[in-house]
Amino acid sequence: MDRKSYVLVTGASSGIGCExxxxxxxxxxxxxxxxxxxxxxxxxxACNPNRDHLIWEYDLKNIDSLEEAFAQFxxxxxCIVSGFVHSAGYLKMxxxxxxxAEQFYSSFNINVIAAALLTKVLVKKKINADELKSxxxxxxxxxxxxxxxxxxxxxxxxxxxxxxRSLAVELAPAVRVNSVLPGGIRTAMTEHLYVDKxxxxxxxxxYPLGPGNTKDICGxxxxxxxxxxxxxxxxxxxxxxxxxxxVTG
Length: 249
Description:
This protein has 249 residues and is of the alpha/beta class. The chain contains 8 helices and 7 strands; from the N terminus they run βαβαβαβααβαβααβ. It has a single domain, classed as NAD(P)-binding Rossmann-like Domain (Rossmann fold, 3-Layer(aba) Sandwich), CATH 3.40.50. Helix content is 40%, strand content 16%. Strands 3-2-1-4-5-6-7 form a 7-stranded parallel sheet, with helices on both faces. Helix 6 (151-171) links the parallel strand 5 and strand 6 (176-182). Helix 3 runs parallel beside helix 4 and helix 4 runs parallel beside helix 6. The termini are far apart.
């Protein structure tokens, strides 16, 4: 029996990943990944019902068994993956004096190591039959600029961008690898920031195009996955409403 092709979207149970899965489902069959079964089901119900989609429930903190679990999932569902969007993330604001090694492990496991190991599985011919064509990592403008109390998150996002550039060279010409760097997007992961009126006013003042939302990121991801970006690899695509070029902010 022929194996069906999908696009894998990690972190698809909420926020940017959820919106990416929904938007991409108009064009692709999606493997909807996350660790909350109920929210994954909600994402599935919002996806295009005219295409076949799969749910993969797995906690990416469990790095040691990740490769085996993902390879088994692909085998059990008789599927292959042509595109991979790593949107799963971990953010916990904390000043350096309170940071622990465990927080660094969690941030790097989810943001960086999981992305690397999933890509590793997908480039194995015996598992994925040379199907993988494009990888998009969801990074952050925090990988390029300093922010108080974002040490572990910024370090992990800088790491995934560095890894992206090396993978782009290593996996070419078969696979293109790029990253999208969103500015401040209001999601479940960042909602705690928006209880501060001062923070909201600062966002309004420093984003020339105003605050962004999850849909603003999807167009960039869709472009990088598709054939219109066939000659683009190793690039950081900033989608931030002009925040990082606003020197008056």
